[in-house]
Amino acid sequence: MQAVPAAHRGFGRYTGLRSASTFAMWGKVLVLTLCLGCGGPRAQSASPDALRARFAAVRAQTALNIFDRPLYLQSSESSDLLQGGEVFALVDYSYDDVRQVLVQADHWCGILILHLNVKYCRASSAAGREALYVGIGRKVDQPLWALNWVMFGYQVDNAGNDYFSVVLQAPTGPLSTRNLRILIEAVPFEDHRSLLHMTYAYSYGQVARWAMQGYLATIGSAKLGFSIVGRSADGEAIRAGGPLGALERNTMRYYLAVEAYLAARRLPASQQTQQALQDWFTATERYPLQLHEIDRAAYIEMKLRELRRQETDNPPKHGN
Questions:
Q1: CA atoms of 108 and 112, how far apart (whole Å)
Q2: Residues in contact with 191: Cβ distance below 8 Å, sequence separation at least 6, in sequence order
Q3: pLDDT digits over 249-299, tens only?
Q4: Which residue among 168, 214, 239, 270 is the one 20 to 30 A from 156 at the CA level?
C-alpha cells in the first residue's frame, strides 16, 4: 500500500487521500463549504452610515442586481487570490429581530447545518469565550469520525441599537486551509426592514490548491457562478466559472441559510426546523444551474438524521 505523504495527512480520519479523484472529491467539499481567498474579508463597516453608504454604492452598480430582488452579490479574483464573496441584502425583518437571532452562537449552528456539507455543529462556552465546533463532509451520510472538524471562535464585535457585527474565525480548516473568517453585520433600514452584509474568506496552502484544481478540472468543470462575465457571439450570457464561480455558489448557499433560518423563527418552535430545511432547499432550487446537488427528499432525510445526531452525540475531541 502506498504511504500517504506527511504533507497530506490530517484530513480528518480519511485514508487514501493520494489519488486525483480523491483530491477532486475533497476539492468539492472545500468549495461547497468555504469561500476561497487569501487574507480576511473586508473589514466591518463599523457604523450604520458606513454600511448604508457601501450598500448604496453596490446598488448603483446595476450589473450586480441579478436576482430580481434587493439582493446583490459581489466577488473578485486575481491570479492567486479571491478577494471574497459578499452579499448585501434587504430583508423583511426588523433590525431587533435580526439582531436577536444572529448575535447568539447557538442560532448559528441552526443556520450552518442547513448547508449541504455541514454535518454537525455544537456551540460551547468556556472562560467567557464562545465557539462553534463544526464538522464538514460530503453530501452523503457520514460518521462523525470521518468528518473534517473546524473550531470557530465566535465574537460579537458590536451589538448596538443601530448596528451589529459578528465574526466567526478559525486558525485552521480542512485541507491545509487557515485563517477561516466569516463576517456578518446589519443595520435598520427603511420600511421596518434590515440591511444585511455577509462576507467570507480563508487562506490556503498547497494541498488545498491541489484539491481545488482537481475538483475544477473534473467533477466541477461544468459548474457556474452567478456573475455575468461576458457575452457569446449570439448574445448569450457567459457566467463566472472556476474558483470565482465556486466562491459565488457558496456565498449564496450561506446567505440563503440565514434567510431560511430567519423566516422559520416566525413559526412555533416545533415547526421551525422542518420549515427552515424546506425553505433552504426551495431557495437553492430557484438557481438550479448553480446550486442543485441532490433531490429534496434526500436532503431533508439526511439533515433530519444529522440534526438528531447533533442533539445526542458528542463530537470527537478537537484536534483528533
A1: 6
A2: none
A3: 888 899 999 999 999 999 999 999 999 999 999 999 999 988 999 999 999
A4: 270
Q: Which long-range contacts (CB under 8 A, 24 or more apart) does 60-65 make?
A: 63/228
Query: What is the distance between the alpha carbons of residues 113 and 257, in angstroms, rounded to a whole number?
Result: 9
- Is residue 122 within 8 A of residue 109, CB to CB? The reply is yes
Residue-wise pLDDT tens digits, 26-58: 455 555 555 433 334 455 677 899 999 999 998
CB 91 within 8 A of CB 194: yes
Closest by CA to 154, choosing from 177, 125, 175, is: 125
Domains and CATH numbers, the chain: 19-224+236-255 (3.30.530.20)
Instruction: State residue 20 phi and psi, 5-degree precision.
Output: -60, -40
**Among the residues of the chain, which ranges form H helices?**
20-33, 48-59, 95-102, 105-112, 206-217, 242-264, 269-285, 288-291, 296-312
* Integer Cα distance of 124 and 132 in angstroms: 6
Q: Pairing state of beta strands 82-91 and 193-203?
A: antiparallel
The SS3 call for residue 245 is helix
- Name the one residue in this structure whose C-alpha cell is 480563508: 202
Angle at the Cα of 110 from the Cα atoms of 282 and 134, rounded to 5 degrees: 115
Three-state DSSP state, 122: strand
Question: Distance between CA 266 and CA 275 in Å, rounded?
Answer: 10
Measured in residues, the chain has a length of 320
Helix (H) / strand (E) element for 235: namely none
Residue bearing cell 440563503: 256
Which residues 6+ apart lie within 8 Å of 128 measured at CB? none
Measure Cα distances from 128 to 69, 150, 154, 171, 246 in Å: 40, 20, 11, 19, 36
- DSSP assignment of 7-64, as one string? GG--STT---TTSHHHHHHHHHHHHHHS---SSPPPPP--SHHHHHHHHHHHHT-GGG
